Structure prediction request, 125 residues.
Amino acid sequence: MKRAIRDTQKDKELFLVLLQKHLGLVTPTCKEMKMNRGTFYDWCKSDPAFKAAVTDIDEVTLDFVEGKLLENVGNNDNVAITFYMKYKARQRGYNDRLDITTNGKDITEIKLIHINGKDAGNKDD
Prediction:
């Protein structure tokens, strides 16, 4: 039984190395290990240290990808700039959503008003 535990531990160590190589992607890592994804998820459930290592790899991958995004921002890539602003500058109004707070009340009517203060439905505008 000790032999199986030691082999599993070595498999987990190798898996983590390969997971980092594959930028945190589980499927290609499992394929290279010749194991099914279920084994990976079982390891995550039963081994907190393994799960923590997987989480660390995910964080490193996010940092890597965020760095690539910022490189594109630095190269004046408008798509990258827009993406970054929509997700990092939401509090400044860079988003595609309208956030309406109702304080728990049902909304039965919405009235649109032009910036100049006239009703949206008024044809005299």
Summary: The chain has one domain: 2-92. The chain has a mean pLDDT of 86. Residues 2-92 form one domain.
